[in-house]
Amino acid sequence: NAGVTQTPKFQVLKTGQSMTLQCAQDMNHNSMYWYRQDPGMGLRLIYYSASEGTTDKGEVPNGYNVSRLNKREFSLRLESAAPSQTSVYFCASSPYRTSGNTDTQYFGPGTRLTVL
Amino acid sequence: QKEVEQDPGPLSVPEGAIVSLNCTYSNSAFQYFMWYRQYSRKGPELLMYTYSSGNKEDGRFTAQVDKSSKYISLFIRDSQPSDSATYLCAMIGAAGNKLTFGGGTRVLVKP
Questions:
Q1: Is the dihedral of CA B45, B50, B55, B58 positive or negative?
Q2: Could you say which of A103, A106, A110 has the minimum Cβ distance to residue B97?
Q3: pLDDT score recorded for residue B98
């Protein structure tokens, strides 16, 4: 049981390049999330997927796109990377139900992205 | 102004001391309150969660919520060097599925 896995662990891009960050979970969770973490800013939600087949914008969606490929996988794409997207990206999953249960999120190890 | 405020620290204490962490928030709709621990270069891991006002204890950790003051706390008793990490508070509304995080407090426990 690996939990939440992310690839790659590190990436350096040039401005304008594109890339996809991959995330997978093996806990049969419904919901998945992408966050970015910047010094002093905490974790900010980029996009989330409450269930397979749905995606919604979070707090900072500009410059990103997502795909919920199936229940296990949720990818984040940067179409044209900018230096402002230099950050640490975390994927998370949760067994969220619409009944209002506590949303315990389980995080992956993160991807450190630098855009030059 | 951020919805959730947390002192960034660092908070440096000697081994065995009590660590006291807190967050203030502005959204009265928050119902569930959590504390995550994040070691350097790792993802956050859930430490404790509480519902509404009150105290919750788990080993050396105690979480407190005061909804009337919009203030939550985490206390770590008998702190150990292995408690050195960044502690993030997080909160969510009753029917929501999106967490709002504080900026995190870095804690250093010196042997």
A1: negative
A2: A103
A3: 78
